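dumping this here before i forget
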Amino acid sequence: MKTNLSKILYVDDEEINLINFREALCDRFEIFTALSGEEALVVMEEEKEIALVVSDQRMPGMKGVDLLTRARELVPDAERIIITGYTDPQDIIAAINEGHVYRYILKPWTEMDLQVTITQAVERYHLKQRNQELIEELNQKNRELEDRVKERTAELATTNQTLTAKVEELERARYELKTLRRLLSICSYCKKVRDIDEAWLPIEDYLHRHADVMLTHGICPTCYTQVMKDMPAEVDQFLGKTK
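structure:
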């Protein structure tokens, strides 16, 4: 039957210690036990969500520090505690350096001290798990944000291309208007030009409006010859009448 209790694996070659450990903690944790390092490895292969591995140091065959070193590979997220009945500093140093243990417990342990140490180790495991979950959530949000930024950037690029095309189209239209590259309706008699609003404008006004051109007036040689050749006689006639 599945349980929501945190899983603890306790390894000791003395069965009475396994019984005492289970009795002290079974109401708060799901306890797995093993009489040797080899049995513990089997448990770790089968149970991947172990929060804590507690191992006696001096056992026949595989020592506790060697087991905890293997535990780092099989259940890397689990906390590790070494229990030893010896105060040999070499054992403690080896446990810290090789097994990367969270803490060590000296035998004989008291039930109160054991519960406090185990509880703190399990809480540390869950804090690390929650921290990892938060990091993954943050990474996921960052990935989603990056995707939205890329999508928005692509939209802006498309919009920019559209606007650029519109600007180019308007520039072409403006150029065509300025250079009058279209058919114009012009009156055959008064020479006024029909504008886009159907108004008829003098050619000077039309050019000024659409081509920003101002006209000055003069007279060409042909017109001068035709118009001005009779001007002196007309002037004399006008002057004579006014005398």
